[in-house]
Amino acid sequence: MPSQPLGTDWPYRHGVTETTNARKIAFATFVRRALDDARALRAWSGTEVSRRTGVSRQTINRWVRGDWASDPEAERVVAFCEGLGLEPAAAFTALGWDRAAGLRTTPTPPAMDPDVEALLRRLVDPNVSDAEKFHIRETIRYLAYRPTLPDVARNRGKQAG
Predict the structure, then answer these.
(1) Of 141, 143, 124, 142, the residue nearest 133 (C-alpha)
(2) 39 — phi, psi (to 5°)?
(3) CA distances from 54 to 26, 84, 103, 126 (A)
(4) DSSP readout, 16-82?
């Protein structure tokens, strides 16, 4: 059986071009790095990233594998980036999209509480032990996800007896 060159007429290419492959690899690398940063800096699991971004784990996993037939939806890419605090323009560049067409202005985030800033600095400080960082993260998780008491229950403790 004669070998065929790997040109566009090669029967096993299924219409995939080198440009498409390069874009898939570039976007997969972008997503992988974003996930690695989320794990390292915020201790977020894949489930947590999915919850925070609104993009399903299955979709994120397909992006990481480069397993998509048509381009990802711009809204999902933007949601993924915004949920992780990343500029969507970086993802658009990896996808080879026109950055000017996909940019939208984002409002300036409100000033962060000084105590929260201090905690974030401790979490990235190499002189802080892993055990202390673990306790900080666990405390933050507890506070972030504990149920809010109804106003009636909160005011009950303030009543004079």
Answers:
(1) 124
(2) -70, -45
(3) 22, 11, 19, 31
(4) --HHHHHHHHHHHHHHHHHHHHHHHHH---HHHHHHHHT--HHHHHHHHHT--SSPPPHHHHHHHHH
CB atoms within 10 A of CB 102: 16
- For 20-50, the pLDDT digits (tens) are 788 889 999 999 999 999 999 999 999 999 9
Tens of pLDDT, residue by residue over 96-113, are 886 554 445 556 667 878
Dihedral sign from CA coordinates of 84, 90, 95, 97: positive
- 49 by Cβ neighbours in 10 Å (0-12 / 13-18 / 19+) ranks as buried
Q: What is the dihedral of CA 74, 75, 77, 80, to 10 degrees?
A: 170
- Domain 16-95 in CATH 1.10.357.140? The answer is no
| Domain boundary assignment for the chain | 16-95, 114-145
Q: How far apart are CA 102 and CA 161, in angstroms?
A: 60
Give CA–CA dist 135/53, Å, rounded.
25
Cβ neighbors of 110 (< 8 A, separation 6 or more) are none
